[in-house]
């Protein structure tokens, strides 16, 4: 597994310059590349990174935008530079969030009878539609107590893991998604979650996926499916992950909606029958 850089508490107390340099290196950009993309001189950028020049709040935000720094971390950059945070973090139950809450509910309701969930940046379940009971049937109740975590639900031996037919493939897919998220956000909580989930024992009969042959890792597939055993049936789902397109609130920016669709006609029929029953 590739080495993953994280932002430590010590780094977060440093000035904005070193933090910006860390984000630039994490994005594998040279000073010249970032300077050209941001419309500033490489000399000025060098002075900012070394602390010889204090950036304005506008400059911090301009560089952060080019580096695709998460909104939560942009606030930390502003604080490190001596400025007030620019992005708010409201709870979903706040009055101002009513349009967001309603939009999420419409997506969840509209996806019935197929399962859909909403998770936050730490994969904690924020909401779900009635159809997710199809997936969580038989799960250890302790894993469903708030704050239930979607990654734990999928990979823990008391969760979905024993019923996932292609567990090795699905586990590799989820861990890869988590690693990509860590690379983007540098969130140490996600690193801890990945270490925890990677250490779970495999279900009986499941094997670690062997490295695929180049060019043949997804032969015959359109997406990595979730193959779930429910009773005597094997249901096949593919998923789509959606996020808000233009968020300026931290909570909204960190929400993801994952919708599961039937991967074959038999699954579609079984899900409709489940909903009807």
Automatic annotation (TrEMBL):
Residues covered by the HTH cro/C1-type domain: 20-74
InterPro entries named in the record: Cro/C1-type_HTH, Lambda_DNA-bd_dom_sf, MLTR_LBD
Stored SUPFAM superfamilies: lambda repressor-like DNA-binding domains
Pfam families: HTH_3, MLTR_LBD
GO molecular function: DNA binding
Name of the protein described by the UniProt record: Transcriptional regulator with XRE-family HTH domain
Originating organism: Conexibacter arvalis
Record lineage: Bacteria, Bacillati, Actinomycetota, Thermoleophilia, Solirubrobacterales
């Amino acid at each position: 597994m590739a080495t993953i850089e994280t932002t430590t508490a010590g780094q977060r107390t440093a000035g904005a310059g070193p933090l910006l340099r860390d984000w630039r290196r994490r994005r594998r950009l040279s000073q010249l590349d970032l300077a050209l993309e941001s419309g500033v001189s490489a000399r000025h950028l060098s002075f900012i990174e070394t602390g010889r020049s204090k950036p304005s709040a506008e400059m911090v935000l301009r560089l952060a935008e080019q580096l695709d720094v998460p909104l939560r971390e942009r606030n930390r950059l502003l604080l490190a530079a001596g400025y007030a945070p620019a992005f708010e973090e409201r709870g979903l139950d706040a009055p101002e969030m009513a349009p967001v809450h309603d939009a999420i509910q419409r997506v969840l309701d509209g996806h019935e009878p197929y399962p859909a969930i909403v998770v936050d940046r730490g994969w904690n379940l924020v909401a779900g539609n009635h159809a997710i009971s199809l997936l969580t049937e038989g799960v250890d109740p302790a894993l469903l107590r708030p704050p239930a975590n979607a990654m734990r639900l999928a990979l823990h031996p008391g969760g979905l893991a024993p019923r996932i037919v292609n567990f090795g493939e699905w586990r590799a897919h989820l861990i890869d998604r988590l690693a990509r998220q860590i690379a983007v956000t540098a969130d140490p909580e996600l690193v801890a979650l990945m270490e925890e989930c990677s250490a779970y024992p495999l279900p009986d009969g499941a094997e670690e996926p062997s490295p695929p042959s180049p060019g043949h890792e997804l032969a015959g597939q359109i997406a990595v499916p979730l193959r779930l055993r429910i009773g005597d049936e094997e249901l096949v789902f593919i998923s789509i992950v959606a996020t808000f397109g233009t968020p300026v609130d931290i909570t909204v920016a960190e929400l993801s909606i994952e919708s599961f669709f039937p991967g074959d006609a038999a699954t579609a029929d079984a899900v409709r029958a489940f909903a009807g029953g």
